[in-house]
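Input record (one chain):
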Amino acid sequence: MIRAEAITRNYGEKCAVDSISFQVSAGEVVGFLGPNGAGKTTVLRMLSTYLPLSGGKLTVAGHDVSAEPLAVRRSIGYLPEHDALFDGMRVRAFLKFCGEAHGLDAATLSARCSQLVERCELSSVLDQRIGTCSKGYRRRISLAASLLHDPKVLLLDEPTHGLDPLQVAAFREHLNILREGRAVLFSSHVLAEVVGVCDRILMINHGKLLLNEETEVLRQRASEAGTDLEGLILEAARAPRAEVSS
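The corresponding structure, as predicted from the sequence alone:
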């Protein structure tokens, strides 16, 4: 579903993403880790066609992001770190607007809205203006909007930011439902959250790919090294600026 081949992104003379390669298959939830400024958001923006590549090849759901950007956008659900919402709109109207922008017919849009309002627990704020909603509700509104068109690829950037512990637990359950038939790339700063839901972990730092391994393999490796998974991943993050093969 996602295939990155030596993708690179430069900002002038600065290389933000340095020739990294990875894949995310259907049914797989992959955690995307890295400190601030590592290049995670740049990768997500290239995947969403917001930023062009400086080099390499990137395909999403079989579509090349450079040659077929509109097809890529139809295939992805993108939840950015900072919610892209219209504060003056009511929640119900906003979801309808997003569905119509994706070209959903009235019957499909109604069914998808009903399903997502229930899953994201939005019924109590449907007629409320978005600007008056709490941070947790705003996050759930954004998630519902990103799922309306039933995308095959989900790009989640800090998806639980602003949610309380109960809402985080509900999100994890929801993610297990969403993963079927979809490729999910889950970017987060919260290590415990990533290892709790992800099948595999990618880590980048200074634009280089430092880690690309299944979570269970990493657990076993940590046990053999006499440390925990968090310690193993932190050690990888402190590695020199050379790509580490999985």
